[in-house]
Amino acid sequence: MVAKHIKSLLYDHDCVIIPGFGGLITRYVPAVVHPVKHTITPPSKRVAFNEKLILTDGLLINTIAYHNGISTVDAQQLVAAFVNQANDQLKTDNRFELSDIGVFRYNAAHRLEFEYKEGDNLLEASFGLPEITARPVRAEESVVLRTLLKDREQAQPQQGTKLKRRLRKVYTTAAGLVIAGLTGSALYLLSLQTEYNLSSLNPITLFTSGTLGSHTSANIQYTSDFTPLSLSERQLAYQEMLRTTEFGEAAILATETETIADEIADIDSVALAIQAEPELNQEVIVEEIAEPVLTISEKTDRFYIITGGYARLQNAETGRDAVRANGHDGKVLTPLKGSRLFRVSVADFATAEEAQGAMNQYRKTYGDSIWVLNN
């Protein structure tokens, strides 16, 4: 029964400690391509063992107590009996097998060794992915295919090549005739317009007929009822325009002077208003919002509801961010003395009674493996 709970916890946690025996640690293994068997194995978890992790973190004991409906004392006794049975088998047979996980043995230096036995894939992301067998592509197969294709291409008659060349020439000639016809039609339509002179399209006429200015002035014509102004009449009209312009500039200057005076008066009124109300000059005090505490690295004598333990800080921070995304006060507790696990809490309380009272509420979200730790 204890072995079944150990395997179940390895799916969700990076480390599971067996009190008084050691800790099982999982690590990620990427997909593997076997060069001889020609198989592709999906990503998985491998399990290692560290006999120095003997300080209990409460995860295994609380899980057994909850699932079997017994007290933590009874669950602790079951784990102790399991450890005694494992030690007895190691002494007599020098071998103890943990079902579907691995085998323990003593080496020549009487140190406990662990051999992982590949069984079920413990990585949830790879659930249901089988091992794939791929047939290798042989080099001689591609050579045979290329030879067959080459023979087939040579066997095909080279008919139709001359016909394609003739058709290409016909298409080119037809396209040139169509473009020439469209251009001629456009020029003919332009020549039909009475007010448009096609000779203006010839740039040579600009130089053969004199300068551009003289050519343009020679083409200026007037209507029969129009009489041009004389030189003296044009001078009188220019003097009238200059007089009107000087008067307009004086009016604009006077208007700008009045506008500047009004702006100075507005600035004086604003200064008097500021002196009359000194309270507006007081500095605004902005209260700084304290940042939330995300990591607990010292003893606080509070009771924390733990969702899991992790051997690496990066995994613990990922678990904490997931807890905070659910709207709870997630924190990371650094390892205590004698432990190497980073624990993630979902809430903390001043007394153990308050923490135990809130367990049922958080089990709805985080399952039955949560437990209380006094840090």
TrEMBL record:
Pfam families documented for this protein: HU-CCDC81_bac_1 (PF18174), HU-CCDC81_bac_2 (PF18175), SPOR (PF05036)
Protein's UniProt keywords contain S-adenosyl-L-methionine: no
Domain SPOR residues, every copy: 297-375
GO-annotated molecular function: DNA binding; peptidoglycan binding
InterPro entries in the record: HU-CCDC81_bac_1, HU-CCDC81_bac_2, IHF-like_DNA-bd_dom_sf, SPOR-like_dom, SPOR-like_sf
Alphabetic keyword roster: DNA-binding, Membrane, Transmembrane, Transmembrane helix
Signal peptide: none
Transmembrane stretches, start-end: 170-190
Coiled-coil spans in chain: none
Superkingdom assignment: Bacteria
Protein name (record): SPOR domain-containing protein
Species this protein is from: Pontibacter fetidus
